Amino acid sequence: MRTAILFTMCAGMFLVQLDVTVVNVALPTLGSELHADVPQQQWVVVGYSVVLAALLLAGGALGDVLGHRGVVLTGLAVFGAASAACGLAQSAGWLVAARAVQGVGAALLLPGTMAVVTGTFPGRAERARALGIWAGISALALPAGPVLGGLLVQAAGWRPVFWLNVPIVAAAAVATRRLVPADVRKPGRVDVPGAATAALALGAGVYAVIAKTPWVGLLAAAAAAAFVVIEHRSAEPMLPLSLLRSRQTAGANLVSAAMNFVGLGSVLVFTLYLQEVLHADAITAGVALLPLFLPLAVLGPVTGRLTARFGPLPLILAGLVLGALGTLNLLRIGTGTGYGTLLPTLVVLGVGMGLLTAAVVTAAVSDAPKERAGIAGGINNAARQAGGALGVAVFGAVAGEPAAHASFVHGLHLLGFVSAGLWLGAAVLAAVTVRRAYGKRLAPTS
User: Fold this and answer.
1) Are 5 and 129 within 8 A, CB to CB?
2) Which one of 147, 285, 398, 434 is CB 3.0 to 4.6 Å from 280, fit for a cystine?
C-alpha cells in the first residue's frame, strides 16, 4: 500500500521534471509547423518554468491549508488538461498559454507529492529512503526528456510529446484517489498578494529580456520591490524573509539560481545548435545531450554521501569551477566544427551540475530551523526554477536566430564567457557564505 503511494507520487514528480526538458528537442519541429521564431520558442520553454517558479511556494501553502491529497488531485487534473491543450495547439500563442497552465499544475504537484510521501513514511530512516527514491526517479526525467522527446518527434511529430502525459496523469489520479487517505487541514491562508507580485516580477523580467523591452524591466523591478514589502508585512508570508537572514541560506539560493541559469539556458542553445547548425535530427540531438544529463542522475546519490561526510562547500566549489571550465570550451566552437567540439562542454558541465545539486540544496536548508526545513527546501526549488527561466530568456536572446550560423556561434562564444564568469563569481560567493564544516555555523546576518 505505502509502496504503491510512493510510486504514484513519483509518477507525478517525474512528469513535472520531464516537461522541463522534453520539449527542447521538439522546438525546431514545432517552430517550423507553428511558424514560431526563436523568442516564441523560448516562451514555449519558459511559459512553463516561470509559472512553476512563481507559484511553487504558494502551491505548498495551499496544500497545507486545503490538504495535500486534494491539491495533488487538482494538480494532476490541471496538468493533464493543459497537456491535452498543448497537443491540440494551432498557434504559438495557444501553445505558450497552455504551457503556462501546465506550470500551474506542476506548482501544485511538486510540493504536494513530496508532502504526501513525507506523511506516508513518518519514520526518519524510512522517510529518507522514500525521499531518496522520489528524488532519484525525478532525476531520471532529466536524461529521459531529450531522448523520449526525440523518439516521439522523429516517429510522430511534436504533439505526442504532450499527449504522452494524459494517460499517465489519468492513471496517477485514479491511484491517488484510491490509495492516498485524506489528510488533516491546517488553519492558515495562502499568500495571494505575494504569489501575484512574484509571478508579475518573474514574468515581466523574462518578457523584458526576450522582447528587449526596457520599460517592462522597470515593471519587473517594481513588482519585485512590492513582493519584498508584502512578504515583510504579511503575517503568513509565502517567502519568510527571516530565513534569508542566514548568509549561508541566502548565498546557497543565489548559487542555485546561477546553476540553473546556465544549465537550462545551455540546454536551449545546445539543442538549437545541434539541430539547426549541425543539422542533427530530433532523436540524434536528444541522444547527443545525454552527456549533459546523465551525470546529474548518476552523481546525485554519490554527491549526497560526499556532502554528508565533508560538508557542502568542497562539492559546491568543485562543481562551479568545473562548470566554468566546461563553458569556456564553447570558445572553440565554430560554424564548421562538429559534435566532438561541443562534447567536452556537455560532459564537464554535466559533471559540475551533478556535483553541485545535492550540495547546494543541503547548504540552503541546513541553517533553517527543523520546523521550517520544508519551506527552506521550497525556497531553494523556487530559486532554481526562477534562475532557469531567466537563463532560457537570456541565452536565447544572446544567441539569436540559429539560421544565421555565424552570429549564432558568436553568441555561443559570448555565452561561454558570461557563464564562466557567473559561475566563478558564484564560487567566490559560496566561499564567503557557506561554512566549511557542519560544526562551524556562520552567524545569521541581517
Assistant:
1) no
2) 285
